Amino acid sequence: MAEKEKDKDKKVDFTNPKYYTNRELSWILFNIRVLNEARDKNNPLFERLKFLSITASNLDEFFMIRVASLKDMVAVKYDKPDIAGMTPQEQLKELDQATHELVNMQYSTYTRSLLPLLEKSGLHVIQAHEDLTKAEAEYVDRYFKDNVYPVLTPMAVDSSRPFPLIRNKSLNIGALVRKKGKDKELEFATVQVPSVLPRIVEIPTKGEGRKVILLEEIIEKNMEKLFLSYDIVCAHPFRIMRNADLTIEEDEAADLLKEIEKQLKKRQWGKAIRLEVEAGIDKKLLKIIEKELNIKEEELYRIAGPLDLTFLMKMYGMEGFDHLKKPGYTPQAVPEMEGEGSIFDKIRQGDILLFHPYQTFTPVVDFIRQAARDPQVLAIKQTLYRVSGNSPIIAALAQAAENGKQVSVLVELKARFDEENNIVWAKMLEKAGCHVIYGLVGLKTHSKITLVVRQEEEGIARYVHLGTGNYNDATAKLYTDTGLLTCSEAIGEDATAVFNMLSGYSEPLNWNKLSLAPLWLKDKFLTMIARETEYARRGRKAKIIAKVNSLCDRDIIAALYEASTAGVKIQLIIRGICCLRTGIPGVSENIKVRSIVGNFLEHSRIFYFENDGEPEVYMGSADWMPRNLERRVEILFPIEKEELKQRVIHILDMQLKDNVKANILTKDNIYEKVDGRGKERLDSQEEFCREAMEQAARHEEVYASRTFIPEIPLEYTGPEEEQEE
Predict the structure, then answer these.
(1) I need a labelling partner for 361 at 20 to 30 A (CA). Which of 124, 300, 597, 688 fits?
(2) Are 183 and 165 in contact (CB under 8 A)?
(3) Exactly one of 446, 465, 603, 699 is catalytic; which is it?
(4) Cα(386)–Cα(473) distance, integer angstroms
């Protein structure tokens, strides 16, 4: 009995590696969840193509950054274990097996499931140019001569022509060739499949169905026209992935913009870390490619199908197959933003909650546009992490500067894979007269905040937009994000402090409402988790709900484990990486983790703390990851207006009830779809679409009725009051 009591009092080490999952292996589990959407027969066929394409794109980026980083660590003999106790060498070994299995799953899904279904649906994908009929072959040859041949650059390798630079992610056709009429040795030759041409080429047909062939098959069929003095012995496509993780010495860089421009060029010739080849590739040809690119056996992927499945996104975009896609959704109007009056008048009436893409992103764009034109606006300050290719926000900021307003923009040049895009925008904004900041040394500025300073009768007023997503009007139609428009004096003061800190390193002595990383945001989260833990120990009301993209911060996970053992009910909605393990006796029995993978990319970060019956709700830009909490500028903001707080809680509640797109993390560290048998089907994303449409329609009815029914008072604001009635 005494031994049992002793065990009970023994403190659990919540940082024990056995309680954690390796971050990279957890990411593989996430990509498998995306792949499962491609395998799900309940999804329309073309949606399944889209999900398969996404898994391929995800895997490319994973190799270029995460796998590349591990290989760099191994190269310099860095052997510090991660939170799951795995060294970089051990992680790579596990990942080699996991990624090969994932690729095999991708291609079995494509060849065994999707291709036959495409055939049945009237779209025939020609697998090999040898399968073309005579008439089709003639069309393909003509297409090659007119459209492809002029663009190609065939490259032979001999004593005077060294092995060419094979660009990162490019698709190439390697060949062994021999001089015509001579028994000379075989020579290597290659040609890059041009990315400037469509990869999917449609072949005219007389029947009802449609036929397509991939560009590399057309080039392979016509290889002899590229090397006229040679016989083509064999030709096979291949593709390489290079290390694309930029190393930027910010402290030593005199000009960050120029330094990043210089480093970007190196992406094309970083070390090759992955080679994809056609499954039946000639052994001699493969040996040459492997030797020249210094590829190890585990870095080789033999592909039973077309290389680079990202082309399926182009197939998804083909016209004429709408019946095989999910019906399109149009983001709905935000009721509070409708009607006459400026956007500033509407914000003054009360904080406005935005929920994209269910509601349109237009209010955010209009916020900047109206500020740019409004003669009372004195200054606009904004952080930009990722923006679209033809951004209306950039145009509005430039116009504001031209109109003589003070415009300060922090453009984060280190936003991965958007560096070039952001450099272009930074230069354009500077030319327009904006004051452009390139971020803080050693930190990425990932916060999403806009401050508009306006001269009004009562004095200076500050209007602020805070969000969980980027100022990107294109992805705002695809990513689920939340935002807040407010003219709260306290938040306005904090927003000014944020920008003063970003531009001049001046940190105020105290803050009102906003919490910032890397200053004290992590401590705030840990304090709030500890508070719930203490409430649970005292038998008071305690609960935590968190919705994030990733969870891999050991301190946060250890705090959640401690809260769980104290009896706090914890529900986590985590789209991607989750290093926390559920169902561990005496550690995580009170923690449930679910992941939602649906038509939209779950991207919002929302946090709920029960606080002994006085719930606190926050939204922000940060995930629960060390990089977000310790190495980035992030902002967390409270939702305090009761009506808006209830709407945010409703968002969480709906996702916790999802039994269609939700996956549950089991104690065996695998994800299983929610068992919705016997329950009413609830797809949270579909439900949010329906609610947004109903809310917009109700508001439209009410607003239209104002014209004809004078009895309705002018201060009547629409759907919220109507619901209360």
Answers:
(1) 597
(2) no
(3) 446
(4) 10
Distance CA 67, CA 60 (A): 10
Tally Cβ neighbours within 10 Å of residue 528: 18
Contact 387, 470 (CB under 8 A): yes
Return the CA Rg of the chain. 28
Both tokens of 33, joined, read 């969840």
Question: What is the DSSP code string of 545-574?
Answer: EEEES-B--HHHHHHHHHHHHHT-EEEEEE
What pLDDT does 263 receive?
62
CATH class of segment(s) 517-682: alpha beta
Q: Do domains 151-261+270-304 and 335-510 have the same CATH topology?
A: no
Specify the DSSP class assigned to residue 109: I
Q: Distance between CA 303 and CA 34 in Å, rounded? A: 20
Other Cβ atoms less than 10 A from the Cβ of 540: the count is 13
pLDDT, one tens digit per residue, over 669-718 is 999 999 878 889 999 999 999 999 999 888 776 655 554 333 333 332 23
Ordered by start, the domain boundaries in the chain are 20-127+308-328, 151-261+270-304, 335-510, 517-682
Active site includes 435?
no
Neighbour tally for 286: CB within 10 Å: 19
- Which of the listed CATH numbers 3.80.10.10, 3.10.580.10, 3.30.870.10, 3.40.50.10710 matches domain 335-510? 3.30.870.10
What's the CATH fold of domain 151-261+270-304?
polyphosphate kinase like (3.30.1840)
- First-last CA distance in the chain: 61
Q: Which uninterrupted H or E stretch holds 650?
A: helix 642-657
Strands 479-486 and 352-356, bridge-based pairing: antiparallel
Cα 419–Cα 425–Cα 430 angle in degrees, nearest 5: 125
More confident residue, 270 or 128: 128
Q: pLDDT at residue 418 above 90?
A: no
At residue 160, the pLDDT reads: 63
| CATH architecture, domain 20-127+308-328 | Up-down Bundle (1.20)
Q: If you search the block for the tokens 């995800």, which residue do you land on?
A: 58
Confidence at 11, pLDDT banded by 50, 70, 90: confident
pTM (two decimals)? 0.91
Structure tokens, 226: 């590229």
Q: Would you give the distance in Å from CA 622 to the centre of its chain?
A: 14
State the average pLDDT for the chain: 89
